[in-house]
Structures
1.
Amino acid sequence: PTSSITCHWGRFEDIELPAQHFDLVYHDAFSPDVNPECWTPDALTKIVRSMAPGASLVTYTVQGDVRRALAACGLEVERLPGPTNGKKQVLRARKSTVASNT
């Protein structure tokens, strides 16, 4: 099997993401307080649409608003222990293995 990594740089609002394409999304957009445009319902919906069925999104942001917004996009959201000597928790959100429009 082949693997590849795609990094998108630029203003989040301007980035076009392919539908149901990514198996893993590392959303390192700092907190909603720092970069609120990356955490809006529209932004999260854009990310979720780009995720293939069964894909995961991981982020260091574990705020309740973010967890609820990802769940509202249809993802199964859970807090996990963070890395050693780092944040206490990280967030993982998984998309259903059944294809959908989101």
2.
Amino acid sequence: MHRLTSAFVLGYHGCDRKVGERLLNRSPFRPSNNEYDWLGPGIYFWEANPQRGLDFARETARRNPSSIREPFVIGAVLELGLCLDLTTAMGIEWVRIAYDSLASSATKGGVSLPRNSADGLRRNLDCAVIRRLHSILEAQGLAAVDTVK
């Protein structure tokens, strides 16, 4: 992980129009906190790609059930701060450490690791690994991750 100084990116969040309008009126984002969220709890954005944000909202609206009735996208300027950058060797190494820790705990406890769904929509294992990484950092007294990229 590294602190990306002056690392601002444009991010696009796919949502329902009512949610987007609420956000434009300065209501705070509501972080997702599901056990299947790909990169753990938080707010999800598509970097530098408003069309992908809108496509995500449209895809989600087609699922049943869905909270998205009218697909919408909202843009934001994001400061990455202390970033777990999965495009770097160090970011991948941190994920490996977290995975190994999670796998070891599962083996010792006689339980199975969570699994990602075949359709890629539910990323329970990925989420568990990222959550484990957060707990490792906290246990070692290290700074918490601000963003995952």
